[in-house]
Amino acid sequence: MLLRRIGQHGMSGEGNTMRILVITNLYPPHIIGGYELLCKEQVEYLQAAGHQVTVLTSYYGLNKPAVEGNVHRILCDIDQPKRKKKKMLSAISDHFPNRDIPIVKTFIKKHQPDLLYIFTLDRLTPFLLPYLLTLSLPKVYFVSDYWIHINTSELDERVTYWSTTPKNKIKQLLKNLLRKMVLKNINYDKNRLPNETIIFTSYHLLESYQKQGLSFKNYKIIYNSINTERYPAVPQNPDNTIIKILYVGQVMDHKGVHTIIEAVHGLKEISNLPQVKCTIVGNSTNQNYVTYLKKLVADFQLQDCVVFQPAVKREEVIHFYHNADIFVFPSIWEEPFSLTLLEAMACGLPVIGTTTGGSKEILTDRENCLVFPAGNSDALSMAMVELINDKQLRTKIATNARNVVLKGFDKQKKFKEIQHFLEGSISKGFES
Fold first, then answer.
1. If you average pLDDT over residues 77-93, what whole number do you get?
2. With contact defined as beta carbons under 8 Å apart, do 401 and 364 qualify?
3. pLDDT for 249-280, tens place per residue?
């Protein structure tokens, strides 16, 4: 069948239909971050290009499994904190959500895909990766964060857990009874990983995996991208009496949101500045952190300056970009490659940001942004002051930022690269 579909000379990339099975943990509208939206956009692009795409994902956000057209929400979403418990009963329950592997086996047999496109397995059973590694079916992994490393680390932790002998005699007995069965499920050949085909969304991600000892032979760097047509340039603000600062993204401590609040508080000590308003747009899975941020606002008496806005639909977020003067990207962790950063830059918003991860591959200090050290609210305050007082600098970095995204990060070009890479992977899979 595959030979007939790709022709005697391999796939040309034109006029050939692929049957693609996308496996991912989350899929819109039930989402946590931006990469799920990127997954949906890629699926829609591949469908528009004539390919048959089926999505296999978890029923996160639903009470039970459901099928919605080509989207099958039938896999389990495993709660992350529970996965890490080391108590015996928790450890046993963690090792037997393996109903998903038979589901995937049956799904592949039924749909006969030409290619598995594995977007992310984070939050799914860690046993799924060892199973996928055994398949000879062509596979491409989309790696926009650290999920492969997290997955393999979790598997290693489980091997260690089940290989140790507890002092408690009852636990010893239980472990001895279950050890062989469990370790058989965990068993995976790490030597297969370097031969897998990967799309990395930044050089930073590739280098991060290499530092962890995971070197891949077959990979391509294809940066995250956006539909730049959705993000027209921000209208000029003729009124400089109020400066509106914006953050868009997950409201989490590793995103550095507290740094913005601390920096806005620092502006109160500086005279002759326009009034500053700050809007923080996004949801959180850590309500303790949200409580901390709101207490910070209260303690600093910034209730009139800082507004929290729940996450909005992508088509609505443009309103916030177009009503802002400065976008702050305060990420503390090594952010793989941010979509909201691309969106703000595409709108021509002047950006103040950190370069702890993949963002250093797009941000150039004093050319298309101002850079400040992660977590340094004083430096962020000074950068805000400079942009507030220097309209010429604001215009320069905003214009350059928009041009960078328009030229190098538009989704039409990047998605075509992905499509050709997937097609080429099928050809290589058949030839091998």
1. 52
2. no
3. 999 999 999 999 999 999 988 888 899 999 99
Tokens of 10: 């391999």
Check residue 431 and give its pLDDT. Answer: 43
Which tokens sit at 217?
A: 């032979």
Q: Dihedrals φ, ψ of 58, to 5°?
A: -85, 165
Burial of 117 (0-12, 13-18, 19+ CB in 10 A): buried
- What span, in angstroms and rounded, lies between the C-alpha atoms of 327 and 368? 12
Residue 340 above 60 pLDDT? Answer: yes
Per this entry, what is the length of the chain? Answer: 432
3-state secondary structure of 136: coil
Mean pLDDT of the chain: 87
- Segment (H or E) for 37: helix 35-48
CA distance 297 to 316: 26
- Tens-digit pLDDT profile for residues 358-393: 999 999 999 999 999 999 999 999 999 999 999 899
Q: Could you tell me the two tokens for 236?
A: 């000029």
Question: Phi and psi for 5 in degrees, rounded to 5?
Answer: -75, -40
3-state secondary structure of 65: coil
User: Looking at the DSSP assignment, which residues form a beta bridge with residue 116?
Assistant: 21, 139
Q: Map out the domains of the chain as residue ranges.
A: 2-225+412-431, 228-409
Helical H segments across 68-213, by residue range: 80-83, 88-94, 100-111, 128-133, 147-163, 169-186, 203-211
Per-residue pLDDT at 13 exceeds 50: no
Asked if the bond preceding 113 is cis, omega within 30° of 0, the reply is no
**Mean pLDDT, rounded, for 222-228:** 93
**Sheet arrangement for strand 218-221:** 66-68, 71-75, 52-58, 19-24, 115-120, 139-143, 197-200, 218-221
pTM of the model: 0.84
Give dist(CA 143, CA 14) in Å, integer: 26
| Fold for the domain defined by 2-225+412-431 | Rossmann fold (3.40.50)
Class of CATH domain 228-409: alpha beta
Banded model confidence at residue 428, pLDDT cuts 50, 70, 90: low
Instruction: Outline where DSSP puts E strands in 233-360.
Output: 242-248, 275-281, 306-309, 326-329, 351-353
